[in-house]
Design a protein that fits this description.
The structure holds two protein chains of two kinds. Chain A has helices at 46-54, 76-86, 102-112, 117-130, 146-158, 176-193, 204-208, 227-230; strands spanning 4-15, 18-30, 35-39, 61-66, 69-70, 87-90, 164-168, 196-200, 212-217, 220-221. In chain A, 37% of the residues lie in helices and 26% in strands. In chain B, strands 2-3-7-4-6-5 form a six-stranded mixed barrel, surrounded by four helices. Chain B has a two-stranded antiparallel sheet with strand order 10-11. Chain B has two domains: 2-44 and 319-462, no CATH class; 61-304, no CATH class. Chain B has 16 helices and eleven strands. The chains are: A alpha/beta, B alpha+beta. At the A-B interface, α2 and α3 of A face α1, α13 and α16 of B.
């Protein structure tokens, strides 16, 4: 049984007057509670594929189904609500809201889901503890290091217990040691929460930690290859 | 949402402060002018109501034709009418003064100098008129200009400074800035009026009240056409010349005691006047009083064709001046609103541009387009509320400062300088309406950038550098 099914996805972008074929006929199945890495060189279509799965972009052709829900059939509002409930997103640049504290940043998705205050507090404190930032709860993003910010972003992505967490090159802006810590943290949380993680990355450390590796090149899905070889 | 909006505004303190300052200065301009206009309104109203009352009961069409035929358009049994008004259960609690007035045209002559001048005569009850002039419902810092005649001295009168000037009475009345008239080649003054003949002067002497004290100082002869067209003359002792604030009025104004005016016009003190002036305690009761009077006219006083006019109809200058101030006030409000609109709009546009990635992030996390729109509109609303609040406080402070400074000016329709007063304290309706306008304008100006923010493509927003 798969968590997400991607059928024959194609996506073209306009860059000025030039049309760029970002994805061509990509089909894929994502398993629940699985650590999947989308890898490939720059411009291979990793981020585009991640955006389509996240429902923040729509394919030109093909279809996406997550937990039995076809994303194409959803209106903009319904798709946004679906995202709020079922998707967690970790950005390469962390994208924390600068005016909110670490606590409030993590709490934000629970506000969107109208979670009761008591439950919000419980979940946020749990996640702050899990990512090792209990003592930084009241710190603003500009008072945190890069690794700490990414930890807050991970906690924010997991706080509402989504079906799927998407991460766009989450270690790209971190040094290798911090990157390794972040990967280990995500792996640990993924095991604890049994949430499916999908990364886009060409970081060997990330690829090495994957349960399932998807290779992309020039918008095409490549034949599966053993993990050791890919690393 | 409001908390997030507030923090976003606080995030860029300098820009928010500049926007707030623009709104505060805008509000200050509107409110100071509004407060000043309000003082002018109240000043004019106090002046007009003090002179003509809130309402006048007149014979039908007197307003249009009465000045040419005061006898034909006189009110009969005015004392009975006045008593019925004073005792009416609806009107009684609203009333302050009910007093008769007789107004007609005449010719005033300085027999000694051989000069004459057309005048408009006001026959009045001095005590009642002075009580009307003390009406100051808005507690303005003004001193009422009271009539100077002594009701016990029948021939006393006062005139406008223009009448005094034309009749060469300046020196007797010790008027400053009263130029002497040039003498023409024939040796007689170059005047528009006619010379009083000696027989009219003799008539005046014969008709003067023998009980009046011996006259000295400024005197004039007042000629009027009595009922039937026969001339009637009275010699008046002028005790002062007044400035009404309008040169045209100064050149025709003559006030005298009502019984003498009635005698001059009707041949004897009688039961006729040209109007009953009705002054109320408060202007806010005007409509209630008017409708009651109209009811009485229709039901009780049907035997005599009557009508009622308010002070605005009787003094068209009131509407013209207040209308002009209202137009300027409206123009300033529109101008300032446009400035606020563009200032807040520009601030919010900058915020949308700077926070493009943040907008993409919020949308990715699951905030609907309407949520993005609400966020930015909330920021505009908060800016508006803060700007309106601080602008109101600043305006009250500056108004108090100006009021204490002791500046003065001569407003339209006034003859004496009055203190410049910015009347804001207690003007809740004006303060509230301007504050609401600023809040609404700020919110509207945030709406367009907010809409643009909400319409952004999520992927493009996340990619924005």
């Amino acid at each position: 049984m798969s968590l997400a099914q991607l059928h024959h996805l194609s996506k073209t972008y306009a860059l000025g007057q030039v049309r760029v074929q970002a994805l061509t006929n990509v089909s894929l199945q994502l398993k629940p509670a699985c650590f999947t890495v989308l890898s490939g060189p720059s411009g291979s279509g990793k981020t585009t594929l991640l955006n389509l799965i996240a429902g923040i972009d729509r394919p030109d052709e093909g279809s996406i189904e997550i937990a039995g829900q076809s994303l194409q059939q959803l209106s903009d509002n319904a798709l946004t609500d679906f995202r709020a409930r079922n998707i967690g997103y970790i950005f390469q640049n962390f994208n924390l809201l600068p005016v909110l504290t670490a606590y409030e940043n993590i709490e934000y998705p629970l506000h969107l889901n109208k979670t009761p205050a008591a439950l919000r507090r419980k979940r946020v404190l749990q996640l702050l503890e899990a990512v090792g930032l209990a003592d930084k709860a009241q710190s603003r993003p500009n008072q945190l290091s890069g690794g700490q910010r990414q930890r807050v972003a991970i906690a924010r992505a997991l706080v509402h217990q989504p079906l799927l967490v998407l991460a766009d090159e989450p270690t790209a802006n971190l040094d290798s040691q911090t990157g390794a810590q972040i990967i280990a943290l995500m792996r640990e949380l993924q095991r604890q929460q049994k949430t499916a993680f999908v990364f886009s990355s060409h970081d060997p450390q990330v690829i090495a930690s994957a349960d399932h590796l998807v290779l992309l090149k020039d918008g095409h899905l490549q034949a599966p290859q053993p993990l050791q070889e890919a690393v | 949402m409001i908390g997030l909006a507030l923090r976003n505004l606080w995030r860029n303190q300098r820009r928010s402060a500049t926007t707030l300052l623009a709104m505060m200065i805008g509000m200050l301009s509107i409110l100071l002018f509004g407060g000043y206009s309000r003082t002018v309104y109240y000043g004019l109203e106090t002046d007009f109501v003090g002179r003509t009352g809130h309402l006048q009961l007149q014979r039908k069409d007197y307003f249009w034709f009465g000045s040419g035929d005061p006898q034909g358009y006189s009110l009969h049994d005015y004392q009975q009418l006045a008593d019925e008004i004073r005792l009416d259960p609806v009107l009684a609690p609203l009333l302050r003064v009910v007093t008769p007035v007789l107004q007609f045209g005449g010719i005033a002559g300085n027999f000694d100098a051989g000069l004459s001048k057309l005048v408009i005569v006001q026959g009045v009850d001095v005590a009642a008129q002075n009580e009307m002039r003390r009406w100051n419902d808005y507690q303005l810092a003004i001193t009422p200009d009271l009539l100077s005649m002594d009701p016990k001295v029948p021939n006393e009168a006062e005139i406008g400074v223009g009448v005094a000037r034309m009749l060469q009475l300046c020196s007797q009345l010790t008027l400053p800035d009263c130029p002497a008239q040039e003498v023409n080649n024939e040796g007689s003054p170059d005047v528009g009026g006619s010379l009083l003949s000696a027989d009219i002067a003799a008539l005046a002497t014969s008709q003067s009240d023998p009980s009046s004290p011996a006259t000295s100082g400024a005197q004039l002869e007042l000629l009027a056409a009595s009922t039937g067209g026969a001339p009637n003359v009275n010699r008046l002792q002028i005790n002062r010349a007044v400035t009404t604030g309008a040169k045209e009025l100064d050149e025709v104004y003559l006030a005298m005691l009502l019984p003498q005016a009635q005698q001059l016009l009707y041949g004897e003190p009688g039961q006729q006047v040209t109007a009953l002036q009705i002054q109320l305690q408060h202007s806010s009761d005007l409509e209630l009083a008017r409708s009651r009077l109209q009811q009485l006219i229709a039901e009780k006083w049907a035997a005599q064709p009557l009508e009622v006019h308010d002070f605005q109809t009787l003094n068209p200058a009131f509407g013209q001046i207040t209308g002009m101030f209202a137009a300027i006030f409206g123009f300033i409000t529109i101008l300032i609103s446009a400035i606020v609109l563009f200032t807040v709009g520009n601030t919010m546009s900058m915020a949308v541009l700077e926070r493009t990635v943040e907008i993409g992030t919020l949308r990715t996390l699951g905030l609907r387009r309407s949520g993005i729109r609400r966020l930015f509109v909330s920021e505009g609303l908060l800016l508006g509320l803060t700007g309106a609040g601080l602008g109101t406080i600043m305006s009250l402070f500056f108004a108090a400062l100006i009021n204490q400074a002791g500046f003065s000016w001569v407003p339209p329709g006034n003859s004496n300088p009055v203190p410049i007063t910015i009347r804001l304290w207690g003007e809740h309706q004006m303060l509230l309406s301007i504050a609401v306008t600023v809040v609404v304008v700020a919110t509207i100006s945030a709406w367009w950038p907010a809409r643009r923010a909400a319409k952004q493509d999520v992927v493009d927003a996340l990619r924005y550098v």
